[in-house]
Design brief:
With 275 residues, the protein is α+β, with helices and mostly antiparallel strands. The chain has four helices and 18 strands.
Length: 275
């Protein structure tokens, strides 16, 4: 079969079409072509497009585009998927590589024999409560935090009662966030299953997708940082995504910053295809 070989990847349900950058250039993918590719009825279907370009023996450059064709500096789940796919394609060693993104260069590595990976994120400023965005009934507080990309974290009492699309769209475009807006993460009350640690359920309205996604890696980090800042969690924080799969965040508040930041989760190769 001749055509464009692609790899369908999933990071806890946050799904991507990935291309091998040895054979494909970002210049070949204008926004309209990306939108067709990511369309869930007439294309492959995805939250975004990833092009992995080898840099040297232990470095890979991740070009990431939202499904609307816009460029995004960083995506946590795309980074986890890129780590696993780079190792699978032998672009870089699985036990440790550098992933170059628009938001900086990150240390990443595969975990175990399955599809888990982890990503070391740079230190970032502590979340700040937003004085300009008023919480609605049922919303306890709203924090602003940047983890390479901007996020709002909305702490709520009943996560299932949240109108994620309507409220998420409203907050995503709030004037206080400027023209770029932000991703919006709603975080509910921690759950605990028998024999398991506490997990914090979250739902995300993602800019560029302009809708709810099943998971958001940097959003999980932003949410975990907010929970640590407010004294509701410490050290290792498990965020339960909408797909029902966990993302694990480790971080330490130190001198006004969040440091030693690690995000762990899955980066599954679902299938390979030809477009």
């Amino acid at each position: 079969m001749k055509g464009t070989v692609f790899y369908k990847m999933s990071g806890s349900g946050n799904d991507f079409v990935a291309l091998d950058g040895r054979f494909h250039s970002p210049d070949q993918w204008p926004p309209e072509r990306i939108r067709r590719l990511c369309d869930r009825r007439e294309g492959v279907g995805a939250d975004g497009l990833v092009i992995l370009e080898p840099a040297d023996s232990a470095q890979v450059k991740m070009h990431f585009f939202n499904c609307d064709g816009s460029v995004a500096a960083m995506c946590g789940n795309a980074a986890l998927c890129s780590t696993r796919l780079a190792a699978y394609l032998e672009l870089a060693p699985g036990d440790g590589m550098e992933l170059i993104t628009g938001a900086g260069t990150f240390q990443t590595r595969c975990l175990g024999e399955g599809w888990q990976a982890e990503l070391n994120l740079p230190a970032f400023d502590l979340p700040k409560e937003s004085p300009d965005i008023r919480p609605l009934p049922g919303e306890h507080a709203i924090y602003v935090v940047s983890v390479g990309v901007p996020h709002l974290v909305v702490l709520v009492g009943d996560l299932e009662a949240v109108e994620v699309i309507e409220r998420g769209r409203e907050l995503r475009h709030h004037a206080a966030l400027g023209s770029a807006g932000a991703n919006v993460n709603f975080v509910g009350t921690a759950l605990k299953a028998p024999g398991q640690c506490r997990a914090w359920p979250m739902r995300t309205y993602e800019r560029g997708v302009e809708g709810e996604t099943l998971a958001c890696g940097t959003g999980a980090v932003a949410a975990a940082a907010t929970l640590v800042l407010t004294g509701q969690a410490t050290g290792k924080v498990v965020m339960m995504t909408r797909s029902g799969k966990p993302l694990t965040v480790r971080l330490v508040p130190r001198e006004g910053r969040m440091e030693d930041v690690w995000l762990a989760g899955e980066g599954v190769l679902v299938y390979r295809g030809v477009l």
